[in-house]
Amino acid sequence: QVQLVESGGGLVQAGGSLRLSCAASGRTFSTYAVGWFRQAPGKEREFVAALSASGGNTVYADSVKGRFTISRDNAKNTVYLQMNSLKPEDTAVYFCAASILNIASLNRLLYNYWGQGTQVTVSS
């Protein structure tokens, strides 16, 4: 069983930066792929970024490519999402997720564990 806890959300002006963290419990977390998803009010949860267990394979949504960076520190059981050049349309609740399949996938159905989410609000 893996538990995920996100932190680092908040209010930021457009053009600013935030770094989200996702702390995981469980000895096998380092073998899981991880992903970040987000959900804006009234919208479906959408893929943001994913990373394989070793960190060698990454996938990004087109909307964040070049602005966001996903990374992990397996020694600390923590996943990060560095978000730069933030836009008002990035406003959402951000969720981290883990997949036992170790596939850096944009398909949310492949993720077995989810955090509770952290709010990111970007003002114009």
Query: Uncertain regions: pLDDT < 50 for 5+ in a row?
Result: none
Please estimate the helix content.
Answer: under 10%
User: Helix and strand string, N-terminal first?
Assistant: EEEEEEEEEEE
The major sheet is characterized as: 7 strands, mixed
Number of strands: 11
User: What class do helices, strands and sheet pairing give?
Assistant: mainly beta
* Average pLDDT over all residues: 95
Q: Label the overall shape.
A: globular
- Rg calculated over all Cα atoms: 13 Å
Head-to-tail CA distance between termini = 40 Å
Helix segment tally? 0
Strand content: over 45%
Structural notes for this entry:
There is one protein chain. The protein is mostly beta strands and 124 residues long. It has no helices and eleven strands. Strands 2, 4, 5, 6, 9, 10 and 11 form a seven-stranded mixed β-sheet that branches. The chain has a four-stranded antiparallel β-sheet with strand order 1-3-8-7, with no helix packed on it. β5 and β6 form a beta hairpin.
Give a quick precis of the structure.
The chain is built from no helices and 11 strands. With 124 residues, the protein is mainly β. A hairpin with a 6-residue loop joins strand 5 and strand 6.
